[in-house]
# Entry
Amino acid sequence: MAFPPKFIWGAATASYQIEGAWNEDGRSPSVWDVFSQTPGKTYNGDTGNTACDHYHRYKEDVAIMKDLSLPAYRFSVAWPRVIPTGRGAVNQKGLDFYSRLVDELLSAGVDPWVTLYHWDLPQILQQQGGWMNPSISDAFAEYTRAVVDTLGDRVSNWMTFNEPQCFVGLGLINGHHAPGYLLPQTDVAKAAHHSMVAHGKAVDILRAKGGSKYTIGYVPTTQAMIPATETPDNIELARKAMFSHTPARELFWTISLFSDPVYLGKYPDDILEIIEKDLPKNWQDDMALISRDLDFFGINLYSGKIIGTDTQGVPCVLPDAPGKPQTALKWNVEDETLRWGTRFMYERYKKPVIVTENGLANSDWVHMDGKVHDPSRIDFTRRYLLGLEKAIDEGVDIAGYFHWSLMDNFEWAEGYKERFGLVHVDFTTFKRTIKDSAWWYRDVILSNGASLH
Ligand code: NOJ
# Structure
């Protein structure tokens, strides 16, 4: 079999990582402005103040998408542009930017896929407790309504939250991401729960506007757990490891903690045992709202771990072979990441899966011939897409794939150290150069995956 005829091919970005214009047209600071502008928080002191200057150059960027025959583009809306005070007045100028962007995309034949929250919380809401404050879900509902009222006549594909594990885990537990807190489990569990309540409220608003015409999903992340060999025992070990908090990962990084409530209407038993005492009072009353029906399961997948048994027969993550291939950020290259990652998600959540992000960090530069040659990105993506195709062959319902990222951008705490884009961005002149991988991806798109072989 091959990729299905209506397979969605796309590329993705996020507001803070590309827009710049951090203090223009009424936008207020987000937690990421405050964090990145604090010395010592990001690599090289890099900030998203200007990023790719996409706010001013979106027309050029959409023209590139058109050149690349990109059918779909996933981007996020910056909450502090839309409701700069967190609650109350809507900033029309902020919304107008996204309205112009959507019009530009549609006239270039690119279908917009909008993420409502990709980590840029208005700082003013952080000062009121951020995700720890139960009223945040009402603030998020107001913001969602403003976005949907403006874009909802032209956008029909929506994602509520991107990688809740990161803004909760990296943001509130170990301080690597904004707002940079080191909080105890009792606060973090509440923040996680409130984010899922906010998700539910947003889904209700989206459905009220678009009904079944809208395609709505949620986007957690995980590392794929890959069976060392394809025996039923090893497959079962990998499946278990994928959804449990031990031994492979920390509690608030576990995908089931954030996805079971949303797709299955309950917390996983093993996790509930640990966090129930910390959840907000009467948390059970929220579960119906949290688990409104969705159209797809979005998953960001980059890497995997090999699961097998040690010499005593005890299940474990197998150690890396010396010199194992890694990307520039030292993430393992595992060809079967998309195959097993999507398969386990589909089995458990029973929704069409969309790979909402996948790609690699690379140290690309403009070569002396003026082009950007990035054979590693081509090889990586080919391996991963062949793995995805295998999953399709094995019966997994996979509706789409979005490459991360359309263009090089601000990689959070890693600043501009490495590059994830199909398009190279010079962060001094803002010149865009289409990389070899982007032209290669265009052929993949135009052949609906046939050129991978
Ligand atoms: C996940 C995040 O959603 C995105 O913002 C980030 O840049 C990529 N992964 C790469 O780390």
The mean pLDDT is 97. Residues 14, 17, 162-163, 300, 357, 404, 411, 420 surround 1-deoxynojirimycin (CB under 6 Å). The first strand starts at residue 8 and ends at 12. Residues 8-452 form a domain with the TIM Barrel fold (CATH 3.20.20.80).
